[in-house]
Amino acid sequence: xxxxxxxxxxxxxxxxxxxxxxxxxxxxxxxxxxxxxxxxxxxxxxxxxxxxxxxxxxxxxxxxxxxxxxxxxxxxxxxxxxxxxxxxxxxxxxxxxxxxxxxxxxxxxxxxxxxxxxxxxxxxxx
Length: 126
Fold this sequence. Notes:
Layout: E1 3-4, E2 7-8, E3 12-13, E4 18-21, E5 24-25, E6 32-38, E7 44-46, E8 52-55, E9 61-70, E10 76-86
Parallel strand pairs: 2-10, 3-10
Antiparallel strand pairs: 1-5, 4-8, 6-9, 7-8, 9-10
């Protein structure tokens, strides 16, 4: 019987490079691979010649998709896969310090760019 191996793939993490290959067996090499149902997580792609899923995920969540392998004789086999992508929780925002000069009513701060979390929307003077 010709088919790629099915199942859950190794989990990925947002912002971290990922790589895992699916493999086919039982047919006549070489094989080609294609996503035939569902989609890979954003930021990942399938190498149609090697079956390697690589890239850097950009959003968290779970993905379900089907990969179909085709052998040299145009015989196909399909398998369903799942891939979990963990979101990265941002650390606490860091704000620089400044001192108001004499007769200065306001001091401006610039927030750093958000990395994986929500934008900073509220500031509190303590």
